[in-house]
Every structure is written in structure tokens, then in C-alpha cells.
Specification:
Blueprint lengths: L5 E10 L5 E7 L6 E3 L2 E3 L6 H13 L2 E3 L2 E10 L4 E10 L1 E3 L10 E5 L12 H9 L5
Parallel strand pairs: 1-7
Antiparallel strand pairs: 1-4, 2-3, 2-9, 5-8, 6-7
């Protein structure tokens, strides 16, 4: 029997510009504050790819294309009997103007500047997955 009664699917996407910069969001929610990659929940009526495009548009103002799957990150909340699975993507194909949302400000950053910002729980692990094999 499954240990967790419910699995929640989410996504995160690293948008990078090919010049050594990538996009992060400084999340304002108290349940997971600090910088992380934009993303969110997969809604019932949409595909996972559609959810990535929608969430990035909502949270960053950018329209992303050619998203590349890079892995997943899982965390569990035993007290709530929940499993969370975040599907991870990246892309360097985007258009539009950068705009922050109620989720938190979004901005471009270089890897060398990461230590200057508070990071969300496990950001280092997610970043390692997103960055694997990537040449900025």
C-alpha cells in the first residue's frame, strides 16, 4: 500500500539567456521563502508542458518555448500524508517582458551571485539538477 494518500504535481523551469544568467524568483510565501525557479501546480485540465508555459507566463511575464525536461524533485509531508513531485524543465527560448507577480519578484542572476540571496529549502539540490550538463 502507498505510504502517501495524495500526490501533488508541480513544475519548475530554469530560464537562461545563454550569457551566464538565469531567472529566479524570490518567493514571498512563508511556506517556502527565498529564491527558487518559477513554477507551480499542474492543473487537472492541462498537460505538464502546458502548465510550465502557463506558470512561467503568470509568474514572470515571459512566454517560454522548447522546454527541456531535466528531471524531478520529490519531497514528502508525512504529517499531511502528501507526496509532492516537481517536474523540472529548462529553456533558453523565451519572449516578452519580465514582470514580477504576487508570488515574488523575478530577476536575472549569475551563479556567482547565488550566495548573496536567501535560498528556499533544497534550492541547491534543484539547482544542481537544473544545471547538470548545461553550458551557459
Amino acid at each position: 500500500m502507498d505510504k502517501y494518500s495524495q500526490t501533488i504535481l508541480t513544475n519548475m523551469c530554469m530560464v537562461y539567456d545563454g550569457k551566464g544568467n538565469f531567472l529566479v524568483q524570490n518567493r514571498l510565501k512563508k511556506d517556502w521563502p527565498g529564491i527558487n525557479f518559477p513554477g507551480g501546480h499542474v492543473e487537472k485540465e492541462e498537460s505538464i508542458a502546458e502548465s510550465v508555459v502557463r506558470e512561467l507566463k503568470e509568474e514572470t511575464g515571459l512566454t517560454v518555448k522548447k522546454i527541456e525536461p531535466v528531471g524531478y524533485f520529490e519531497w514528502n509531508v508525512p504529517s499531511e500524508n502528501l507526496r509532492h513531485v516537481s517536474l523540472l524543465f529548462r529553456t533558453k527560448v523565451f519572449s516578452g517582458s519580465l514582470a514580477s507577480s504576487a508570488e515574488g519578484p523575478v530577476f536575472w542572476i549569475k551563479e556567482s551571485d547565488l550566495a548573496s540571496y536567501p535560498q528556499s529549502v533544497d534550492f541547491d539540490k534543484v539547482y544542481a539538477l537544473m544545471n547538470k550538463g548545461l553550458r551557459f
